[in-house]
Amino acid sequence: MTLRFRFSSSDMITTAGVAMRPVEINDIGGTFERVGQPGIIEAFSHHQLAEMMRRPDTTYFAGYFDRATQEARRDKPVEVISELPEKTARLVIWRKAVCDAFLALEAAGLIKRTQRAYEQAKAQLASATARLVGEGASAFAKVRPGKEIKTRKLPASRTVLHWVRSYQAAGYSALSLIPATHLSGNRTRRWCPKAEALMNQVIEIYADTQRPSKVQSIQETRALFAEENARRTSAGATLLMVPSASSVKRRLDSADPFYVYAKRHGTSAAARKFAMSSNGPDVVRPMERVEMDENKLDVMSLLTLTGIWEHLPPDRQKKFETGRRWLYIAIDYATKCVVSMRLAETPNSDDAIRALRQIFEDKTPLAQAAECESTWHHHGGIGTLVTDMGPAFVSDAFQTTVASLGITSHLPPAGIPWMRGHIESFFRTLGHQLMPLLAGRTFFDTVDRGDYPSEMLACLCDDDLIKVLLTYIVDIYHNQPHGSLKGETPNAAWKRLIAEHGTPPVPDGLTLRKAFGRPLTRKLNDEGVLFSGLSYSCEALREAYLHSPIREVEIRVDLQDIGWIAVKVGATWYPALANQPGFAGVSFEELREGIRAVRHAHARAAKLDAPTVQRAIERISEANRRAFALRALTPYHTTDVEIARADAGLHHPLRSDAQRLGYVPPSNDLLNDAITITPPTDTSRESDSDDSGPGSERRTRRKTRRRWGFNDGK
């Protein structure tokens, strides 16, 4: 049952820093007006008021606006008696008992407010006071016979009458009886302004990067007084009073600790020293807060993608360069699941953007490529992305991408790693659990490393390293109990919270291509725009081809799905589908491998056919597809230079007249299915087709010319 509260118009309630006073209270609830903001009214039900009174940021002051209450609170060191020291609080309660006993005796006609009447009834007043306060012989605890009892002596009549008058004027509030000893003491300035300025110099002398001792700082400060007095002596002025060493030390001890430590050790060190522990952000929903960071792996590896290391002779193995890769990791704060991972040669914005792109994808194919038993399905939209102040994250490219996705970016100040505690903890967990299992580890520092030959034992290539990392994250880390989850595994936490809250929606395909797609410029022709042999078109491109004098358009390509691209016509982006069907979901790597396979079987001058390339893509082995997927996580991903080179090699679009007419003859032979279209025939050189001429002899010699092979070096 909800209580009904009764408020007075002189009461005040402060909640969430907003002070309000009651205006009207009825059976339903009450209306309150904000203090200092007349006309702003808020209404609360009795149930809401009950909930409000239990909140830690709510304070209730009964009769706050009464004149008597304000008189009692004026010049008082506390607002309630319980804030006083125990000795002072007991004294105030005794004074209150004296006043209450006096008023009770006065009401009974046993005492008057005169000195003579007070002296006559003093013993009776002391007895009544002892009963009210529970001290002396009237105490609740039993006193053994013969034990000494301490009682308070009543003051003279003038003091008691002063207490009673103050007590009544303050509305019978005990605050008016608090001793005014907190106002006592000489508060006049002891030093002249010049001496005060010189004494304050001890703080600046001590707060120096050279970190002098307190004794040195005090001596140097007193030396300043000696110099100033010497100058005043020569000028005939009044000398300054030189403070003692203890006075200067008290002035130094009163300095701001954070300011002194920051000046002596730096702001980052001061932030770490004076940081207060907390439970961190209140995050309960998956992907509500994603922490992302970069870290240099504590293991030496071979900076290559080769998979034939064990087959190379020792002299060739020594020529391979070794080093430490950087690892980009993104982790979901609520479930502690890793939602993105990527190797990088050095910290850079490009790899940071590619790692950000993985957060929105189901990465189970990557886990399968690494032969993991569990799935890596953790993905979704991002509420808030938290990174450090690293160059890769504060770069214009990364921040532009984050802003294009509509993500809230949070960059905690540098030197405060606990603001991203979970991602920092993950790197430490990685160093303790996984790195001891790898040959070539570098340990946490040179002292722990000792004489361990990390460079000589380096044997992991990039593809091996990424497989090890994927196996650890997907099969081990996601399935082991996590301390921050109270023993629950990240996979179980993800499943539970997804069922309860879901995740923010991932950006749509057009937004992803605008944010992450490779920016290119293409010329508009009658088929639309061309990229890597595929032509793309849409209604906006057709209108631009008819009416716009501008023949160059900007496109954005997603290398993981070349079935459609984003094109910019005017100031608007549009999706453009490939004119050749069957390429939806095909990656750029698969397209390039399919074209390479067709060209390997045909003459390079032959024109490529879309169905032929599609069948070649279907024949790509699963091992190659896994290699393509894992390679995307290493520093050897597809670069812009490779895209330009592959695109320049295709002078004609992939097409097939039979496919355009809706009929593709079935065949398993690439040579039969391919449509070989050669450049236009030059009639002036038809005589070269005669095999009996000298040109035929030259062609025969070229065909029979011996080609170089791997065994020629013997």
From TrEMBL:
Residues 664-714 are annotated as: Disordered. Coiled coil: none annotated. GO terms for molecular function: nucleic acid binding. Residues 699-708 have a biased composition (Basic residues). It comes from the Bacteria. Residues 282-498 form the Integrase catalytic domain. It comes from Pseudoroseicyclus tamaricis. This is Transposase. InterPro entries: Integrase_cat-core (IPR001584), RNaseH-like_sf (IPR012337), RNaseH_sf (IPR036397). GO terms for biological process: DNA integration. Transmembrane segments: none annotated.
